[in-house]
Amino acid sequence: MLELKHLSKTYRTGDQALTDIGFTVPAGQVVGLIGPSGAGKSTLIRCINRLVEPSRGSVVLGDTELTTLRDRALRKARRRIGMIFQEYALVERLTVMENVLSGRLGYVAGWRSFLRRFNREDIALAFSLLEKVGLAEHYNKRADALSGGQRQRVGIARALEQNPELLLVDEPTASLDPKTSRQIMRLIQTVCRERNLPAIINIHDVMLAQQFSDRIIGLRAGEVVFDGKPEELTDDVLTRIYGEEDWAQVRKDQTDEDNDRASPAVDLAEGV
């Protein structure tokens, strides 16, 4: 379980990115984090794993207070948090298998980490995860030879290679076509349910968030302005989060755009 208490972030410029954020994410729950650009979504995710230092408040994962940890203790705690990035964050010249195994670097001795030597159990797990994400046959292909959807799947497998207790996902579909976006979100949802893994997904696509999240948290100007079920995300709530808009027309325009961008001839094996 993840618990945030009074989490705030003020930058040296004086900009207030987050204000008094507090909520709990139980095991197995997928949370869609939505809001306009600049609302603090990415900052919130990065405060949880301490890539950005919170100014105040606490982050508790299980029985560990993450905001008090330093140095080695912090590095050890970060092994418990899987991170999936918008830009994939793969090492392009390495193979798919090597990128997935990099999820174990925090667990191996320094010299083994430098030489990228892993035990049989780690390698077996990596093959199992690549099978899970539909990339087993690409294990020896360089990362820079993959499509965007395939790279995102490698990123998911790498995060799961850590055997995490929490999954943080930052804009996983921003660079993907509508069909691939749904496949990626469905994959994240499936692995979270199978592993009873809590997840927070920063996502700009409200329709995808509603379809694949158990819960929606809406941020505006660094504050939580909505926390509820996907079906409770009414037009009035969307206006509270994003501002005044003709939401019926927005949905229609997005549906039309998705239909225009969709590629029916692309299948799961070749197009993602």
From TrEMBL:
InterPro entries: AAA+_ATPase (IPR003593), ABC_transporter-like_ATP-bd (IPR003439), ABC_transporter-like_CS (IPR017871), ABC_transpr_PhnC (IPR012693), MetN_ABC_transporter-like (IPR050086), P-loop_NTPase (IPR027417). The keyword Kinase does not apply. The keyword Lyase does not apply. Residues 249-272 are annotated as: Disordered. Keywords: ATP-binding, Cell inner membrane, Cell membrane, Membrane, Nucleotide-binding, Translocase, Transport. It is found in: Cell inner membrane. It holds the Pfam family ABC_tran. Its main location: membrane. It comes from the Bacteria. One of its GO terms (molecular function) is ATP binding. It is a peripheral membrane protein. Residues 2-246 form the ABC transporter domain. NCBIfam families: ABC_phnC (TIGR02315). This is Phosphonate transport system ATP-binding protein. It comes from Marinobacter salarius.
